[in-house]
Amino acid sequence: MSTDDTAETVRDDAARERLIDLAAQFYDQFALGDIPHMEVPTRTKSNIEYDPEKKVWVYGDRTSTRTANTVGGAQKLLKAVYTIDFLAQQLEEDRSSTLRELYYLSESWDNENAQFKSQDESNQLVEDLEIVSEVTREDFHMRPEESGATVIGPLFLREQTRRGEREIHCQEDVGEGGYQIPNNPDTIEFLDHDADFVLCVETGGMRDRLVENGFDTDYNCIVVHLKGQPARATRRITKRLHDELDLPVVVFTDGDPWSYRIYGSVAYGSIKSAHLSEYLATPEAKFVGIRPQDIQEYDLPADPLSDSDVNALESELEDPRYQTAFWEEQIGLQLDIGKKSEQQALASRGLDFVTETYLPERLTEMGII
Prior knowledge:
Arc Repressor Mutant, subunit A, ATP binding, 3-stranded antiparallel sheet, TOPRIM_Topo6A/Spo11, ATP-binding, nucleotide-binding, 2 domains, alpha/beta, Dna Topoisomerase Vi A Subunit, Chain: A, domain 2, Type 2 DNA topoisomerase 6 subunit A, 6-stranded mixed sheet
């Protein structure tokens, strides 16, 4: 058994033990004559706080109690016990399943009250178990539906798969589509690299343009395709590339308020996964564009801001993540000009403009290259 195999087994055993300990707490509460209960942070926007020291979203002090003193509460705990039993067995058998499969699997459970009424309900319970057990769903062997996000660039890695270890160079051993990020990037070991920085790209069209133009090769760049709002695995591998390889991270999105939030999820975490911000977020990540300033300077094709865009921009001005001189200037400018623009709008100045002019100039200004 390799060192990686051993580490994975230890991780699986620890996750299973945490789950079983959690279920045992309910039995202990019964034995003491207490009403079974489980306490979790209150998962509302009002209980999410921006930690200025860690520069990520975290849960506040308020908690909610799942308790069996009501029929509804008892059903929630029953579902938790059935889910814990399923996950513990899954880990023991070294199997995995998707969040969607868990929802359907509950249909086969012998107690109808333990079955989920919707996937939102089962998803929320898995998040509760993550928080209470301090074990990620990836270590429960739970997968989302495939995100399909990819990496391409001068990175050599070893991946632990069910067919054994594979060593992969993310330029030489992959096609134009790149290396697909696994559900749990912690199964990857970085062996070597020739990269100078990481560029996270929102859209598939822009990612393909960069690869076709050889940007990853010319600038020793690891290109991470975010595929819109990035999945947890995408954010996790980005953080590992920064923390473990000491690589600067820059984020390249469309120039609209929703894309600024994509940058925010990479840099500061998201409200939905506030319990994992320190595991997923890269606060040092920088925003390269598209900036509202670019819309003016390059006379980019643009669309007018909608009412929802304006509301989102005004909301971002109140968001502690965007209360910096850069963001206040750029968002203020965007509200003034009333326009938004896509990454692909750079093609109006030629297909090579983004790789020969725009990105080199911006990255030089930022001290990245």
